[in-house]
Structure formats: structure tokens, C-alpha cells
Amino acid sequence: MPRWINVSNGFTALRVALVPFVIQAILQGRQFLALELFAAAAVTDILDGAAARRFGTVTAAGAVLDPIADKCLLSGVFLALAAAKAAPWWLVGVIFGRDLYILLGAAVAMRWTSLRKFPPSVWGKISTFVQVATAVSLMARDLLGGGVAGRIATVMPWPCAAFTVWSGVHYTLRILRLRGRLTESALGSSLRLETGDHDSL
């Protein structure tokens, strides 16, 4: 059996499988069901990491599939919320724009540098947390109506957009710093080789 077929990746696959059901519940106005399914998907995100550590099944495939599952879930939820007029389309544009920007940045970095791994930054994790909190607040507003839930849901898109944009900017700064270190390392190696050649003459 291939190593990537394991309990951890099974939880990741389950999270992807839940996405269309969450979307359908939102579009049908069944916000309580949507919240339940969204919570179940969030639990799988916790379980897949725990299982990978517990059973020692951390794989390259899992490292790729996990963020893809997260993006599918959040992107699908925000698209459904916007289609249901529960979230502003401009926020969806900001979230998708940042994700596309990061994908293009990674492609460029892989093309022009030796970088191959792009671990999530603390700001990327914070941005994801705020996006989750925003999605929950928007679904809760439709479920609970006005009041405190309504005020929170009205405010949340703004910090969500701010953290999303900043995480993209921070990603760019990280890539530039890593590229600078690689350049310095290459120059240092070149100088050492040249010095070694001169010493041998």
C-alpha cells in the first residue's frame, strides 16, 4: 500500500468531501446545518495533523493535500456566502486574489530560484483563522438574526480583508529575504572557490 494512503490523509480527503455539502447547505439557507458541517470539517483539520504525528505518517503528499483541502473549504464557503448575499463579493475577490497571487509567486520562485518548500508563515495562519471566524460569524448572523451576531458579522469582513492582504505582503517579503540569502550563499561559495583556486597556484 502506498505510504500516502493513511489515516491522516483520510481525514484530509473527508474534509474535501464535506465541501459540496457545506456549500449546498449555505445556498439552501440551512445555516445551522452549514455550521455543523463546517465544524466537522474543521475537526478533520485538527485530526489529520494529530494522526500524522501519532502514527508517524507525515508525507509530502499530505503536506500538499492539507492546504489544498483548507483552500477548497474556505473558498467554497465564501463563494456560497456571497452567492447567498451573506458576504460581500469584494471580500471574495480579496481572498481569491491573495491566493492566486501566492500561487503565482510560488511558481515564479520555483522557476527562478532553488526554493521548493514554502512553509506557512504565522501571518498566513492568522489570516486563515480570521477567515474561519469571519465565515462562522456570517453564517451565525443568518441563523441568529440581528443583535450582537449581526454587528460582529458586519465588522468582520474588514479585519478579514486586512489580514488577508497583509499575509500576501508578508509572503512576498519572505520570498525576497529567502532569495537574498540564497544569492549571498551562492556568492560566498563562489568567492571561496576562487580563493581556493588562487591558493593552489
Description:
This protein has 201 residues and is an all-alpha fold. It has two domains: 1-86, no CATH class; 87-201, no CATH class. It contains seven helices and no strands. It has helices at 7-27, 31-55, 60-83, 89-112, 122-144, 147-155, 157-200. Helix 2 (31-55) packs antiparallel against helix 5. The longest helix is centred in the last third of the chain and has 44 residues, at 157-200. The chain is globular, with a radius of gyration of 21 Å. The mean pLDDT is 82.
- SSE series: HHHHHHH
Number of strands: 0
What fraction strand?
under 5%
Helix fraction? over 70%
Unreliable parts: none
Number of helices: 7
| Structural domain count | 2
Mean pLDDT: 82
| Distance from first to last alpha carbon | 57 Å
Radius of gyration: 21 Å
Main sheet record: none
Q: What's the shape?
A: globular
Q: Give me the secondary-structure category.
A: mainly alpha
List keywords for this structure.
2 domains; 201 residues; mainly alpha; 7 helices
Task: Please give a quick description of this structure.
The protein has 201 residues and is an all-alpha fold. 85% of the residues lie in helices and 0% in strands.
Which helices and strands occur, and which strands form pairs?
Elements: H1 7-27, H2 31-55, H3 60-83, H4 89-112, H5 122-144, H6 147-155, H7 157-200
Helix pairs in contact: 1-2, 1-3, 2-5, 3-4, 3-5, 4-7, 5-6, 5-7
